[in-house]
Amino acid sequence: MIRITIQQKIDMALTYSDMTKTELSKKLGYASPQAFQKRYTTGKFTLEELEKIAKALGCEYSSCFKYPDGKEI
Questions:
Q1: Is the pLDDT confidence value at 73 over 80?
Q2: CA–CA distance, 14 with 46 (Å, rounded to integer)
Q3: Which SS3 state, helix, strand or coil, does residue 1 take?
Q4: Mean pLDDT of the region 18-28
Q5: How far is residue 68's CA from residue 25's CA, in Å, rounded to a whole number?
Q6: CB of 19 within 8 A of CB of 57?
Q7: CB–CB of 56/18 below 8 Å?
Q8: What pTM does this model have?
Q9: CA-to-CA distance for 15 and 42, rounded, in angstroms?
Q10: Residue-wise pLDDT tens digits, 40-70
């Protein structure tokens, strides 16, 4: 199984959206790019924060458990 970190997912979304971390940090209202970078380095984002990141990137963030029978929780 391939494991992708949340930082890697954010990096891929930034690339796809043609946006830099600096631009994202401004859209999210961080006081400085360094403040966002510190948060990014830890990778400890709440679901609400990930949804805000997605909105700023013009996409949706989806987090759920998916079962083989198609059930999502």
A1: no
A2: 18
A3: coil
A4: 95
A5: 37
A6: yes
A7: no
A8: 0.83
A9: 20
A10: 999 999 999 999 999 999 999 988 778 899 8
Which segments of the chain does DSSP mark as H helices, in order?
A: 6-17, 21-28, 33-42, 47-57
Give the amino acid at 48.
Answer: E
- Which residues 6+ apart lie within 8 Å of 49 measured at CB? 39
Q: What is the mean pLDDT of the chain?
A: 91
Q: Per-residue confidence at 72, pLDDT binned at 50, 70, 90?
A: confident
- Do 35 and 45 contact (CB within 8 A), yes or no? no
Sign of CA dihedral 2, 46, 62, 13: negative
State the Cα–Cα distance between residues 30 and 22, nearest whole angstrom. Answer: 10
CA 20 to chain centre: 13
